[in-house]
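About this split. The held-out portion is used to measure sequence recovery: a designer receives only the C-alpha cells and must propose an amino acid at every position. Recovery is the fraction of positions where the proposal matches the reference. Here is one held-out target exactly as it appears in the evaluation file.
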C-alpha cells in the first residue's frame, strides 16, 4: 500500500488530503439548508396539480414562504408533480451538478488553453483543484443545500455565450428562457441592447415573450395575479434588511430597517448602471457577461447569499488576468490578494456573524461584506480588452511556464521566464501587456 501511495504524485496526495478535510467540514459544519427551496417548488406544484389550489396561495409548512417565481417557471417544474419529495431533491441535485460542469468548462477552458495546460495529466489536476474550490464556495454550497435553480439559470445564459461566439442564429434563446423563469436574468437582455447586439436581443426578448404568453394561456389567473399584484410585493420574498440580502437595497435597508430610503437606493442603482453601461461597451462578450452578473446581484431588490454564484465569472476573469503577472507586478499582486480575500469571505459565510449587528462601522462592513465585494468586482474587472502586442522574439516567453501544475519544470526555465517578463517591462512591452 505504501509503495502504491509513493507512486502517486505529491500534488495529488496533497489535494486528496485537502479534499477529505473539506468534505468533512462541509458535512459536519453548520449551514445545511435542508433543501428548503426545492421543498417550496415541490409543494407548490403538487398543491396546484393535485389539490387544485392556486400556486401562489401555497405556503410551506412551518414557514411564511411560498412560490415567488413567474408562472412559466411552474410549467418547467411540472415533472415534480409525478415524483416523490426525495426524487425532486435528487433531480435538482443532478441538474445543478450538470450545470456546474458545463459552467466550469465554459468559464475555464480559455484559461486552460492560454496557460498551455494541454496534457491530460495537467488538465485533470487543474480541473480537480477548480472543482474543489467551486464546491467549497459558499453561494455554491447554499445553492445545492437549498435546492435552488441559480446554476441552471446561469447555464442557460452561458449557453448563449457559446452560441453567440459560434454565430448561431438562436443565440439569445437561453437568456430569454432564463428571464421567463426568473426575472433577474432579464438584465442580460438589457446588456444585449446596450452593446448593440440587436439580433440576439430580439431572439431573447421574443423567447421571453413567447414563454410568458404560453404560461398565460395555461395559467391565466395565476399570470394575472403575478404580473399585476404579486410581482411588486417584495415582502413575499423576505425582509429587505435580512443579512442574507446582499444587494444594494439590502444595504440601504440595514441603514434604516423601519424606513429604508428608496431615493438613496435609486441613486445608487443609477450610478451602478451608468458605470456598468460604460464598461460593457468597451469589453468583449465574455467580460460583458461577467460584469452583468455582478450588476444583477447589486441592483436586484433581493439578492440572497446563494444568488452570488453570479459573481463567479467575474472572479475567474479577474484572477485569470492578474495571476500570470502576480510574481512581478505589484498591482497584480494586490488584485490577487483581493480575490483570495473575497473567496475566503464568501466561503466562510462571514455575514452571518452580523445577523443582528448592523450598527457602527464594523457592523456596517460585516453585514454588507458581500455587497462591498460585488462593488469591488465591478471596478476590478478590466474595462478594456488588451489588444495583442507584438513581442520581440528575444523577449518571447517559453511555452513551458513551470508552476504547481508543472512540478517537474526545471527551475532555470522558470527563472528565465520571469527575467524575460522583467526585460519586457523595462522595455515598455510589459506595461502594454498588463494594460
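Reference sequence for scoring:
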Amino acid at each position: 500500500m505504501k509503495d502504491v501511495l509513493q507512486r502517486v504524485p505529491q500534488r495529488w496526495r496533497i489535494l486528496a488530503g485537502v479534499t477529505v478535510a473539506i468534505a468533512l467540514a462541509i458535512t459536519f459544519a453548520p449551514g445545511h439548508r435542508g433543501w428548503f427551496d426545492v421543498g417550496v417548488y415541490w409543494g407548490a406544484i403538487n398543491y396546484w396539480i393535485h389539490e387544485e389550489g392556486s400556486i401562489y396561495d401555497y405556503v410551506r409548512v412551518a414557514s411564511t414562504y411560498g412560490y415567488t417565481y413567474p408562472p412559466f417557471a411552474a410549467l418547467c417544474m411540472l415533472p415534480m408533480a409525478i415524483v416523490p419529495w426525495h426524487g425532486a431533491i435528487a433531480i435538482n441535485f443532478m441538474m445543478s451538478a450538470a450545470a456546474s460542469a458545463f459552467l466550469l468548462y465554459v468559464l475555464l477552458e480559455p484559461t486552460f488553453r492560454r496557460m498551455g495546460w494541454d496534457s491530460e495529466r495537467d488538465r485533470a489536476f487543474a480541473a480537480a483543484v477548480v472543482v474543489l474550490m467551486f464546491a467549497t464556495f459558499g453561494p455554491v454550497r447554499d445553492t445545492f443545500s437549498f435546492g435552488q435553480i441559480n446554476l441552471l439559470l446561469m447555464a442557460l445564459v452561458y449557453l448563449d455565450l457559446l452560441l453567440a461566439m459560434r454565430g448561431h442564429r438562436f443565440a439569445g434563446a437561453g437568456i430569454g428562457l432564463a428571464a421567463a423563469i426568473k426575472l433577474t436574468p432579464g438584465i442580460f437582455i438589457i446588456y444585449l441592447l446596450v452593446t448593440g447586439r440587436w439580433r440576439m436581443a430580439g431572439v431573447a426578448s421574443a423567447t421571453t415573450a413567447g414563454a410568458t404568453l404560453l404560461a398565460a394561456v395555461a395559467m391565466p389567473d395565476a399570470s394575472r395575479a403575478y404580473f399585476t399584484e404579486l410581482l411588486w410585493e417584495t415582502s413575499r420574498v423576505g425582509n429587505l434588511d435580512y443579512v442574507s440580502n446582499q444587494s444594494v437595497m439590502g444595504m440601504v435597508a440595514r441603514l434604516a430597517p423601519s424606513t429604508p430610503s428608496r431615493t438613496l437606493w435609486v441613486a445608487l442603482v443609477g450610478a451602478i448602471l451608468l458605470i456598468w453601461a460604460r464598461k460593457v461597451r468597451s469589453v468583449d462578450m465574455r467580460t460583458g457577461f461577467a460584469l452583468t452578473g455582478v450588476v444583477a446581484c447589486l441592483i436586484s431588490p433581493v439578492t440572497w447569499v446563494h444568488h452570488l454564484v453570479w459573481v463567479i465569472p467575474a472572479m475567474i476573469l479577474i484572477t485569470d488576468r492578474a495571476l500570470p503577472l502576480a510574481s512581478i507586478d505589484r498591482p497584480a499582486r494586490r488584485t490577487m490578494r483581493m480575490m483570495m480575500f473575497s473567496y475566503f469571505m464568501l466561503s466562510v459565510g462571514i455575514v452571518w456573524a452580523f445577523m443582528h449587528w448592523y450598527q457602527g462601522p464594523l457592523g456596517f462592513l460585516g453585514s454588507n461584506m458581500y455587497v462591498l465585494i460585488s462593488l469591488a468586482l465591478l471596478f476590478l474587472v478590466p474595462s478594456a480588452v488588451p489588444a495583442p502586442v507584438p513581442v520581440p522574439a528575444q523577449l518571447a516567453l517559453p511555452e513551458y511556464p513551470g508552476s504547481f501544475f508543472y512540478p517537474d519544470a526545471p527551475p532555470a526555465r522558470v527563472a528565465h521566464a520571469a527575467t524575460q517578463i522583467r526585460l519586457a517591462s523595462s522595455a515598455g512591452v510589459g506595461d502594454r501587456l498588463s494594460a
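Annotator remark: Residues 238-385 form one domain.
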